[in-house]
Design a protein that fits this description.
By secondary structure, this protein is an alpha/beta fold. The protein has 15 helices and 10 strands. It is globular, with a radius of gyration of 20 Å. It binds ligand F0G.
């Protein structure tokens, strides 16, 4: 049987029964790419570095793992409408899975601060897209209140089914490597994904599928790093709009993942994020969105500072690249020089190719 998505593959670890209507776009089974070139470039030769490219999910981000679960369970419970707040990816994913399920979807997004690709997805999938004059945190409190007062299902990561689905990313990594990695580097925004991965690794180990647990290395953008400063931030700012969040919903769970795994939650500057974003595209041919590069930026920062432990056997590092670069082509073009046009003749072409 062809691959049918994460619920089918990992049903024994998920809260589903044979009666659950599975709403799937065959998400998951994303590539785990060895990053030899990047490794050389960033002084990581003492490690085995892998990229888990979650941009290869059907809507181009890791949210699809959580959304197949959340929407399947919502439909099972008879929901006719789902709602979410989003910096873009959650709204794209919710809209797509709602379309697949034939139910309504409303999304609240911070006006002017979501990448165009994500907005176009939510619109194309027929969601009711509501742009608010506020940030993600404002949008999240509004949708929470709406879901409490009306028969509408919240599909942000406060919904435990989202976490259940997203933990399958950890399962896939263990299945591919034959063991959990030594370190996992990843971006942190609303903190659902770090919570989900940690749950995934611990559950898989408890079931005997792995022995090792990775150190969870989460990175926030410096202008939006409440988990690092220890207090919510009223006006978070970063070019990595996906993680422009000042008061993460899964605050406690993220700190628990950090503490239990002896990992870190730290920050990287926008410059460091853009540097990692460019390096990934140029050295590995992997185009992720800026927020996705925050984990790799963290790895570069820790390698440079000599903060990474070494062993004789190479330690294994997995970086989660959460979303696809094509979500935000405007940022890419702004980051790199746009090519000038030349006359359409051989002489000009020879000059342009330095022939
Ligand atoms: N990377 C990308 C590309 C994201 O879109 C997000 C979150 C994260 C990382 C952070 O994950 O919130 O689980 O810590 N995006 C949400 C959204 C907030 O609305 O699409 P997290």
């Amino acid at each position: 049987m062809a691959y049918q998505g994460i619920i089918d593959r990992y049903q024994e670890f998920l809260p589903v029964t044979p009666k659950t209507p599975v709403i799937t776009l065959h998400e998951g089974q994303t590539p785990l790419i060895p990053a030899k070139n990047l490794s050389r470039e960033i002084g990581g030769d003492a490690y085995e570095i892998y990229l888990k490219f979650e941009g290869m999910n059907p809507t181009g981000s890791f949210k699809d793992r959580g959304m197949t679960m959340a929407v399947s369970k919502a439909v099972e419970a008879g929901a006719k409408t789902i709602i979410c707040a989003s910096t873009g990816n959650t709204s794209a994913s919710a809209a797509a899975y709602a379309a697949q399920a034939g139910i309504q979807c409303a999304v609240l997004i911070p006006s002017g601060n979501i990448a165009l690709g994500k907005l176009s997805q939510a619109l194309m999938h027929g969601a009711n897209v509501i742009s608010i004059n506020g940030n993600f945190d404002d949008a999240l409190s509004l949708v929470k209140e709406t879901a409490e007062k009306y028969p509408i299902t919240l599909v942000n990561s406060l919904n435990p089914d989202r976490i259940e689905g997203q933990k399958t990313g950890a399962f896939e990594i263990v299945d591919d490597l034959g063991e959990a990695p030594d370190f996992q580097f990843m971006p942190v925004g609303n903190a659902g994904n770090i919570t989900a991965y940690w749950k995934g690794y611990t559950e898989y180990c408890n079931k005997g599928r792995c022995i090792n647990l990775p150190k969870m290395m989460g990175f926030q953008a410096a202008g939006a790093a409440p988990l690092v400063s220890g207090k919510p931030i009223k006006s978070p700012e970063t070019i990595a709009t996906a993680i422009r969040i000042g008061n993460p919903a899964s605050w406690k769970q993220a700190m628990a993942a950090k503490e239990q795994s002896a990992g870190v939650i730290d920050s990287v500057t926008d410059e460091e994020i853009l540097e990692a974003y460019k390096l990934l595209a140029k050295t590995e041919g992997v185009f992720c969105e800026p927020a996705s590069a925050a984990g790799v930026a963290g790895l570069i920062k820790y390698l440079k500072a000599g903060k990474m432990e070494k062993r004789i056997a190479k330690l294994r590092i997995v970086c989660i690249l959460t979303g696809h670069g094509l979500k935000d082509p405007e940022r890419a073009i702004q980051t790199i020089h746009k090519p000038e046009s030349i006359p359409a003749d051989m002489a000009s072409l020879k000059k342009a190719l330095s022939l």
